[in-house]
Amino acid sequence: MTFQSVFGADPDIIAAAPGRVNLIGEHVDYSDGYVLPFAISSRTTVSIKKRPDQKIRLASAQRNTAIFETSITDLKPKSDGKWERYPLGVIWVLGIKEGLDIYVDGKVPLGAGLSSSAALECSVATALNALFNLNLDLKDLARATQRAENEFVGVPCGIMDQSISLMGKAGHALLLDCRDLSTKLVKMDLAESNLELLIIDTQAHHSLVDGGYAERRAACESAAAKLGKSMRELSLEELEAGKSKLTETEYRRARHAVTEIARVVKCVTALESKDFDLVGYLINKSHASLRDDYNVSCPELDVAVDAAIAAGAIGARMVGGGFGGSAIALVKQSEIEKTKTAVMAAFASNGFKAPRFFESLPSQGAELILN
Ligand code: GLA
Fold first, then answer.
1. pLDDT tens string 24-57
2. This model's pTM is above 0.90
3. Domain 189-359: CATH superfamily, name plus number
4. Ligand 1: which residues within 6 Å by Cβ?
5. What DSSP designation does 333 have?
6. Active-site residues: which are they?
7. Among 117, 132, 331, 353, which residue is least crowded by beta carbons within 10 Å?
8. How would you class 354 by CB atoms within 10 Å of its CB: exposed for 0-12, middle for 13-18, buried for 19 or more?
């Protein structure tokens, strides 16, 4: 399938945007924190053509089903739907008033915690920004796509995934200050140090804990309100001093946020000085904090992390929202196969579905392909 075969014409514009892996800085983007993600090579490509009427038609290479059709005047936040809500949310948030034919080819693995949704939103936003000469910069686009997901789709996500999908640079992780979206590129040439980052998709998704993300976010917000400081401004000492004002859950959620933000800062220095043992140590600490204080890991993620470390990985942790999805392991190039074998064996002996493995170098963020 192609745009031409579905809609019988050539597109006006084509744009692509990648998924992401977050090296460190998990569940702190909505707490004004720092995060250190990079864009992966898997990307979603979207082809768009303007229509002379107000219809919006959507098709996807991955969903060999009928064309989804609606009208620009019928776009309503939080309406039912599936993947179509993501591009529709971006059209809505950007205030587009003309009809469109849209064809999506999504190559970011779905449900793997690698942000296929941000890749979809950001590819559509990049294309529409150029097609309608909106002149939005990358920060504007990141905020707009986050709003599309928060207000139109109804997912209370932070701003990390959209920002890195738009701003990623090959060979670099991106230190992103989630308070003002200022950035610093951090060189991440793992191959030069004979290392690789293995992505382990656990293929698990625990729908039982839907709503768990919103609960974590709310706990950090109420802790910040009670202590009068954002997680970003709070020191561990201040948190300990204010412990009695918080519930036990708020305290543990806040302890994760405060320590994780500090780990991101240390990790940047470690990467810059190529101290990968320290990077690995920080990654391991991040996982323990997400597992024990933030309670967003799950048995499959813990087994993946533990098996990778037992097989010799320098560091491993869950990435993304948690409750399933992917883990990353920082591994010596020569030990990649050994690590994969160990993780597969551990999954088999726990009776889990076999994991999938990906490897990706830090890649380029969103770009126009045809303009
Ligand atoms: C999801 C959200 C992000 C971020 C991560 C956790 O991917 O979309 O905004 O909060 O979880 O770090």
1. 999 999 999 999 999 999 999 999 999 999 999 9
2. yes
3. GHMP kinase, C-terminal domain (3.30.70.890)
4. 26-27, 29-30, 157-158, 160-161, 320-321
5. G
6. 161
7. 353
8. exposed
